[in-house]
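question for whoever is on the cluster today: can someone run the full assembly for these? two chains, 442 residues total. i dont have access anymore since they changed the login thing
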Amino acid sequence: MTEFSFWDILRNLLLAARWTVVLSLVSFVGGGMVGAALLFLRIGGRHWLRLLSRGYIQLFQGTPLLMQLFLAFFGLGLFGIDVPAWLAACVALILWTAAFLAEIWRGCVESIAKGQWEASASLGMGYLQQMRYVILPQALKVAVPPTVGFSVQVVKGTALTSIIGFVELSKAGSIVTNATFQPFTVYGLVALIYFALCWPLSKSSQLLERKLNVAHRNH
Amino acid sequence: MTYQFDFGWLIDSLPVLLKGIRITVQLILVGAVFGVALGIACAWVRALGPKWLKPVVATYVELIRNTPFLIQLFFIFFGLPSLGIRMSELSAANLAMIVNLGAYSCEIIRAGIQATPRGQFEAGASLAMTPFQTFWYVVLVPALQRIWPALSSQIVIVMLGSAVVSQIAAEDLTFAANFIQSRNFRAFETYFVSTLIYLALAILLRQLLAGLGWMLFPRKASR
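^ ran it for u. tokens below:
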């Protein structure tokens, strides 16, 4: 049997962590785009579009991410698409992230005082102009800390893709454990690597929030 | 390509599904009660506890909040036996959920406590309450009332996260779905039905928690 040194284990885990990072970035960017579209439907749009996007958000926030992964993995296949694990992982994570980001951003847009809408309407601006010039610039500032905070959930969410067979940090952890019989060391290291990815994001979210509050107090 | 949907397996699989639902409900009941209790204890430490304990709790909260639940579960179930701590799948699942919710609810409750004006502590002391009594009646109960919606959401999130415990073969709803799926080869239908069950459970749990909040905190916040 081959012996694995501590450094062999760590090196393999770090190599796999790349895929966690890539998957997180893809989900976050893709989810942000879909989420922005959902946001516009959710707050503007026709009545039935608003209901539709609300239903979407409720559905994805009210069911386990693991089930969404399974459904993407087996559901896309029904359309005759050959589904590799990475595709199912990306689709499910993007759709899941979008639901949460849309809801977070909705809170930010609604935190903008109603008078701003009315003032811009009285200047004869249309809905899109109001959004573009008045509401979004203000809402974006409010949105930064919770958005950065949510990115931590996305990184942690990618761990579930190991269950449908995508080889990222968690899956690599299981594989290395099976080879080395050292679950305590391996899962401890895996946890620490996740921590190293997530903690800076959590911290910067907190710092940003504090900074924004200070800005508020100085107004 | 045409795919024929078939839900005929549903009737035969009902007992398995029901058992899975029962275990998922059991997991969230135990997890919520002990998790929130742990969260209250940790919030007490962070607000008023002994100085040496504060960094310990802070480390625990940060570690749990910044690592995936799946890894916490694997660490408890596969990792701890190396230290001689061995437990059944269900106990490991319960422990992981308690530890996870404990960290999150600690942060939520702490936010509620921080919103309590300093004068409340002094007012409690001037009524000859012990520090513990002050904490319990003057600080904690209004804090819980304030953060009840956030706490409810977190409990629902932990319930949905519990789907992962099927990976250590705890026989929850997802485990039941995997089991049924491996018999009937109707993967999409099986997971679709179990997803709907989870959705129903989440909505039900949210309503129950809202009702519980209504019962526990009948008075509206006076501010």
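summary bc i know u wont read the tokens: The two ends of chain B are 62 Å apart (CA to CA). DSSP finds eight helices and no strands in chain B.
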